[in-house]
Amino acid sequence: MPAKQKFYLTTPIYYTNGLPHIGHTYTTVVADVIRRYKRMRGYEVVMTTGTDEHGVNVERAAKKTGVPESEFVAKMADAWRALWLELGIPADEFVRTTDLQHVRTVQWLFKLCRENGYVYKGHYTGQYCIYDNAFVNDAKPGDNCPDCGRPTETVTEENYFFKLSAFQKPLLDFYKKNPEFIQPESRRNEIVTFVEGGLKDLSITRTTIRWGIPVPGEEPHVFYVWFDALTAYLSAVGGPDYEKRAMWPADLHLVGKDIIRFHTVYWPAFLMAAMLPIPKQVWAHGWFLMDASKMSKSKGNVVLPRPIANMLGMDALRYFLLREVVFGQDGNFSYDALVTRYNSDLANGLGNLASRTAAMIEKNFAGKIPKAGKLEPQDETLARETQTAIGDVLDYFEKLNFARALESLWTVIATADKYLTTEKPWALGDSEADTQRKATVLATTAELLRIVTVLAHPVLPDSTTKIWTLLGQPGSVSAAELDGLRWGQLTTGVPLGKPQTLFPRVEKSEAIERIESMANEERNPTAPPAPAPAVASSATAGAATAAAPAASEKIGIEDFAKVEMRVGQIKTAERIVGADKLLKLTVDIGTEIRQICAGIAQFYEPDSLIGRKVAVVTNLAPRKLRGVESNGMIIAASVGPEGRPVLAGFLEDVEVGARLK
Ligand SMILES: [Zn+2]
Questions:
Q1: How far is 626 from 583, CA to CA, in rounded Å?
Q2: Whole-model pTM?
């Protein structure tokens, strides 16, 4: 077998002055979709993301929190890495610009550029804010600092400069020879015009910043922003030893449209100067706007990914981000549109088609996909249309036109719905001919569903894995080969898998309220609660300090009397979409009926709880769990190493509302 073709793609190396919001999530999701798609086409793929950890803003943020820079950035990097993992989009290479490998790569690139005559020492003059210890880019004498409002001063410092001016012609030639380099087209024209206007040399070091990569032998010079950050793409796949890893040059840099110039002018120029291979493509995507204004931390309109993933599942967010706007353009983000798409396209569309197809096969063919019998023209039409869609979808994926790819796929789903409505397999009887016809219709629908599942996998990895299992198909959907995908490869006669919860329908206003409530909790985390006094005495209290309450501290009866507990009776119990562990209960506590959430969903069936009498803490302040209000607490024992909850109860009959003392 020939060696696999490689594909190397990157997200930007995100700046660590805050935590990821939906904008960063968008780029990273797109990268993950492309990674999965390319793997299904047989490529060996590496996807890199990371954190840009140097510079004055990090210096300042660290000072504010009172920790050394190295500690501050380590925490940030951990948080970013953990979130990508939680959202199911971890990178193959996570590069930090404080990594030793990266430091070496930047210094090596500088050395190459200098040896080739593209670096010189000069002076940089600019407006400087003494209070913030930073140059204010683009400020003129007399301007105030945009950060603190104080007047700036004109300051001159010694810098190393990169001879960007020498690359005007080489860059223009390169763009001409590689028309695919800058995407989309509109950005390409913008960059060409910019470069045609002339390029100024670029200051690439600073002596006024402390937190940066030192220029070897030239301290106190440190590298400044782009010479450091852009190089991370190369250090992630081997740096000076990039040939061994054989991933460089990058096949695709995904960037926001605000940083396209740095990626398509500075970056190829640095690489040309060092005589290193140049990336094949830079793709600039647009912004998600909230009420038509760009999302930003300072505007406070930032959408967070985690609450959406908790409520609707990560697949729903991925689908929405890719379906809602054409990649490369700006789009509007609204919770309303998100939930509407979830219900219409996922719950009623793909989810419903999968569950009803499986249910009919279960009922009529003992849970095994039947073989199709004689094909009618309408069956053949459906097969032909689906086969055509395969080509269209792959073509759209290849052009990173995800919106159109998904649109084509959902047209196929709609065709299947119409087909079932016309053929009415449920209305057919048990005669030989009817059974044959039923088999053909259900096998045809199952085959269509299999193909949709494979094609949708890069975008909906979790739910398509579930549908694959549901259909009882061999192997895993991620291992399906897109290039060999054809109508007629369905494995029949094998038992269906267990029924799967795919996309439970949600009530729109309730879903939005819960997402917003969870987002508020994440934005304004309440201080961690003070450690509760333990009841049992502890022999390990030796480490306790005078400031912290000793673990063995006992409470007085007056403290215990503050807790009001009553006998309650469970009236209703239901599961909560987006919260696997929680049940939503209504509990009669004698004086009123309360809504209480309890973390017992994995151990108690909702129906088994109705009528059960439980011990309830009734004077706990109401709080929200996963966005659902909980007014009280049910007492349970925590058993075993996993803390399995066992509800406290009464051996004799007790009156509802009776106080526990
Ligand atoms: Zn300032």
A1: 11
A2: 0.86
148 C-alpha to ligand 1 centroid (Å): 4
Ligand 1 centroid from CA 473, angstroms: 62
Distance 565 CA to ligand 1 centre (A): 56
DSSP string, 66-124: TS-HHHHHHHHHHHHHHHHHHTT---SEEEETTSHHHHHHHHHHHHHHHHTT-EEEEEE
Cα(223) to ligand 1 centroid in Å equals 21
Going from the Cα of 140 to the center of ligand 1, the distance in angstroms, rounded, reads 14
Determine contact, residues 9/35, Cβ cutoff 8 Å.
Answer: yes
Structure-model confidence comparison of residues 294 and 345, the more confident one: 345
What pLDDT, in 10s, does the model give residues 362-413? 999 999 999 999 999 999 999 999 999 999 999 999 999 999 999 999 999 9
Separation CA 596–CA 616 (nearest Å): 9
Of 158-167, 322-331, 334-343, minimum mean pLDDT range = 322-331
In this predicted structure, the answer to whether residue 91 has a pLDDT above a threshold of 80 is yes
Residue whose structure tokens are 């059960």? 612
Q: How far is 244 from 360, CA to CA, in rounded Å? A: 54
Q: Are strands 628-630 and 134-136 parallel, antiparallel or unpaired?
A: unpaired
Distance 602 CA to ligand 1 centre (A): 54
Q: How many residues does the chain have?
A: 661
Compute, in angstroms, the gap from residue 131 CA to the centroid of ligand 1: 5
